[in-house]
Design brief:
The protein has 374 residues and is of the alpha/beta class. It has 2 domains: 250 residues, Aldolase class I (TIM Barrel); 72 residues, Arc Repressor Mutant, subunit A (Orthogonal Bundle). Helix content is 42%, strand content 22%. It is built from 15 helices and 15 strands. The protein has a 9-stranded mixed beta sheet with strand order 7-8-6-5-4-3-2-1-9, sandwiched between helices. A 3-stranded antiparallel beta sheet has the order 10-11-12, with no helix packed on it. Strand 7 and strand 8 form a beta hairpin. Helix 1 runs parallel beside helix 2 and helix 2 packs parallel to helix 3. The longest helix is centred in the middle third of the chain and has 17 residues. It binds iron/sulfur cluster.
């Protein structure tokens, strides 16, 4: 079993971010209490079994204080059997990480940190409106280790306009020096409802050129490969098998429960989407209502989701599973498209498993959507 907890608060809005969060933290305690109540209300959503991974995402979960974190973890332990070796991840921003907060996280049972570093280059951090400095980004990794948390992932963003390849290489060199075991690297995307989206509309920002983004991706994958990182998902790289067990479970279509404003849940046949609005969420939970919209997944939905997530991973997608999920429609609709893609050198088949080639990784999402069925 897998549990995701969305903490919908941030100190300030990063210019590229379209996740659900509020910078008004006055009702942080009340929302946390509501999330704890939602955990209880939905404790039977998943079939019986051990909780193998717990993931505090956001927003900024490192804004939780000790009482809030304990409330959530105590509630989880009261209502679920947490596996002794469960992976318990907390997303954190470097400016929240000091010796005291890290000791508090570690004592509470957090055994994996996913740190939103994004860049070690100060002008990039200012450009993206990050709340931390390059120095804090560097120091927090050492502090986390001193607090006993060794399983550390960092997020990096590439294809930042006005950047150059040397800056990307220097960001990577810093990560190598810090001996990080897991790196998630995301191409900057400009979403309409963000500050960058509005700058783009007003022509204060140039669109990110596809060719530049592709070059940065190639530099990134090559450099990470040379330093012993395995690309086990298009944007995720791990050394010595330090995969994110939680995210891998999403990519392998395992059911999970998501609680908190904007969180999603999946039970294998349907999805539920919590409202992305803190006040509405709070009001509903206080009246014992789950503020979620429900969607039954059709065979086509299930097939297309499997393609979209599975093709991005080193495990690929099983042709037999595509047939089962699509009730036989996949081969009928997409056999000739598969042949075309194989001839272009974008995909290959190995013992009944469809995998992207190195060239195909550049177009992962486009390839998946071209293979969608109706
Ligand atoms: S990137 Fe993270 S810290 Fe920045 S606004 Fe989004 S959720 Fe908050």
């Amino acid at each position: 079993m897998h549990l995701y907890i969305h903490i919908p608060f941030c100190k300030q809005a990063c210019h590229y971010c379209d996740f659900h969060f509020s910078t008004n933290t006055t009702n942080k305690r009340a929302v946390t209490e509501a999330i704890a109540k939602e955990i209880v209300l939905r404790k039977d959503y998943l079939p019986d079994g051990d909780m193998e991974t717990i993931y505090f995402g956001g927003g900024t979960p490192s804004l939780l204080d000790e009482a809030e974190l304990h409330l959530l973890l105590d509630t989880i332990h009261r209502h679920f059997r947490v596996a002794p070796d469960a992976e318990i991840t907390l997303e954190a921003n470097p400016d929240d990480l000091n010796a005291a907060t890290l000791a508090m996280f570690s004592n509470a049972g957090i055994n994996r940190l996913s740190i939103g570093i994004q860049s070690f280059h100060e002008p990039h951090l200012r450009f993206m409106n990050r709340a931390h400095t390059a120095l804090e980004a560097e120091q927090c990794v050492q502090l986390a280790r001193q607090a006993g948390i060794d399983n550390i992932s960092i997020d990096l963003i590439y294809a930042i306009p006005s950047a150059n390849h040397d800056i990307l290489l220097s960001d990577l060199a810093k990560a190598f020096t810090l001996d990080i075991s897991h790196i998630s690297a995301y191409c900057l995307t400009i979403e309409p409802q963000t500050a960058f989206g509005s700058w783009l509309k007003k022509k204060k920002l140039k669109p990110i050129e596809e060719e530049y983004a592709a070059q940065q991706f190639e530099i990134l994958t090559q450099s990470l490969g040379e330093h012993g990182y395995e690309q086990y998902e298009i944007s995720n790289f791990a050394r010595d098998g330090h995969y994110s067990r939680h995210n891998s479970s999403y990519w392998q279509q395992h059911p999970y429960l998501g609680v908190g404003p904007s969180a999603h849940s999946y039970d294998g046949a349907s999805r539920e989407y919590n409202v992305s609005h803190n006040a509405k969420y709070l009001e509903a939970i206080q009246h014992d209502r789950i503020p979620a919209t429900f969607e039954t997944l059709t065979p086509a939905d299930q097939t297309n989701e499997y393609l979209l997530t599975g093709l991005r991973t080193k495990w690929g997608v099983k042709l037999q599973k595509l047939e089962t999920l699509s009730q036989g429609a996949f081969a009928l609709q997409q056999q000739s498209e598969l042949g075309k893609m194989a001839r272009k050198g974008w995909i290959r088949e190995e013992a009944g498993i469809l995998l992207l080639t190195e060239a195909g990784k550049l177009f992962a999402d486009r390839i998946a959507s071209d293979l969608f069925i109706e």
